[in-house]
């Protein structure tokens, strides 16, 4: 029998899944456009399409460096401006509604959620990692976060920050990331596959133990006014909320879920059989955030933020397509046997890059 799509706006699950799919489609479209943009550069052609700025959302370290540059100079750098702004949108979201970025927007969070479903199909009540193993493992992501913050905010001075931001390494960081995944090595494939398998046995393995971005958002989320809150007078301690929580939080044992692992996914609220026992609300339960409103806030921050960034000229970067071709040569990213029109291509290069290209062509003969 075909199951009917039930868009139940009173449940977090339905509305949230809808938003997740919208963001996933957006990421796929961005990825497709960026792939075409890069493919044309690789054969020495000026791309017909523009580079989609949203791809910079996948450069969190560059965004953190941009943030320090902004603190130092009050300038949004024009290499990856949208990277910094997307980082700020995500931070604002975490300050408002816990780690909702992970459960509404992040495609890896979406994949993790599917793997949690598989986990619960296999292990009906869900496996929990012993706390003596769980706590030390959770420190890994905080260790990585401390490493990045220390390296960027304490070790890099103003000169080094600017030098990095305008280096060809940073300018082509997104292109190199794409090439890494489109021409993936055996080691990387095995690593990704192992993480997927581990996530089937240990819920949210990547997000819980390894993601430094999630660690950062978890710290911000302590300040979030909206948290899952339990009304002890109504709760019957049935424990259903504990079973469905992808972060293995013991919701039934707490009044306010403070945990840095809470994604504000609302699964516990949806599953609770007692009306009014659980909600996602502000302190003293003055304002309860309904599913549709939570989705609206997420979409508003991202689409409104991107709109403002476009209007103020801080969305597209300032690297021309000709500059991209020159940087591609400098970083040996041109597919020399597949160059379409060598004379036309060379015409786009400055003298230094022409010499580099000639050398590369001789080396690869
Ligand atoms: S599901 Fe609801 S009633 Fe059951 S333990 Fe959790 S909060 Fe209490
Ligand atoms: S406590 Fe509730 S909202 Fe938070 S992660 Fe667990 S199920 Fe989701």
Which features characterize this protein?
365 residues; mainly alpha; two-stranded antiparallel ribbon; binds iron/sulfur cluster
Can you walk through the features of this model?
The protein is an all-alpha fold and 365 residues long. It has one domain. It is 61% helix and 2% strand. The protein has 18 helices and two strands. The protein has helices at residues 12-42, 60-73, 81-96, 100-104, 107-122, 131-155, 158-165, 168-171, 173-182, 186-201, 205-210, 212-221, 240-244, 267-271, 291-311, 321-330, 342-347, 351-363; strands at residues 227-230, 278-281. Strands 1-2 form a two-stranded antiparallel ribbon. Helix 6 packs across helix 12 (212-221) and helix 16 crosses helix 18 (351-363). The protein is elongated, with a radius of gyration of 23 Å. The N and C termini lie far apart (62 Å). The model has no long low-confidence stretch (mean pLDDT 93). One iron/sulfur cluster is lined by residues 228, 244-247, 249, 251, 257, 262-268.
């Amino acid at each position: 029998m075909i199951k009917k799509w039930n868009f139940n706006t009173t449940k977090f699950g339905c509305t949230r899944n809808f938003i997740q799919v919208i963001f996933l489609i957006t990421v796929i479209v961005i990825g497709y456009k960026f792939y075409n943009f890069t493919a044309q550069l690789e054969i020495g052609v000026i791309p017909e399409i523009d580079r989609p700025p949203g791809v910079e959302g996948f450069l969190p370290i560059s965004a953190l460096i941009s943030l320090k540059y902004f603190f130092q100079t009050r300038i949004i750098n024009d290499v990856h401006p949208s990277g910094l702004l997307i980082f700020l949108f995500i931070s604002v979201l975490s300050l408002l509604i816990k780690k909702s970025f992970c459960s509404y927007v992040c495609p890896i969070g979406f994949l993790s959620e599917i793997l949690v479903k598989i986990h619960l199909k296999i292990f009906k009540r869900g496996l929990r990692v012993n706390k003596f193993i769980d706590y030390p493992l959770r420190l890994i992501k905080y260790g990585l976060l401390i490493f990045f913050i220390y390296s960027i905010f304490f070790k890099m001075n103003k000169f080094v920050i600017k030098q990095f931001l305008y280096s060809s390494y940073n300018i082509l960081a997104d292109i190199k990331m794409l090439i890494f995944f489109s021409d993936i090595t055996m080691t990387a494939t095995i690593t990704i596959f192992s993480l997927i398998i581990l996530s089937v046995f240990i819920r949210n393995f990547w997000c819980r133990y390894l993601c430094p971005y999630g660690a950062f958002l978890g710290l911000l989320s302590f300040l979030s006014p909206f948290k899952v809150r339990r009304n002890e007078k109504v709760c019957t301690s049935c424990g259903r909320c504990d079973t469905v929580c992808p972060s293995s939080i013991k919701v039934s044992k707490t009044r306010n879920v403070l945990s840095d692992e809470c994604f504000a996914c609302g699964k516990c609220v949806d599953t609770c059989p007692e009306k009014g026992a659980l909600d996602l609300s502000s302190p003293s339960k003055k304002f309860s955030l309904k599913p549709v409103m939570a989705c609206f806030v997420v979409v508003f921050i991202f689409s409104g933020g991107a709109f403002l960034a476009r209007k103020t000229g801080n969305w597209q970067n300032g690297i021309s397509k000709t500059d991209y071709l020159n940087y591609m040569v400098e970083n040996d990213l041109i597919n020399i046997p597949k160059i379409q029109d060598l004379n036309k291509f060379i015409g786009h290069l400055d003298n230094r890059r022409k010499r580099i290209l000639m050398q590369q062509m001789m080396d690869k003969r």
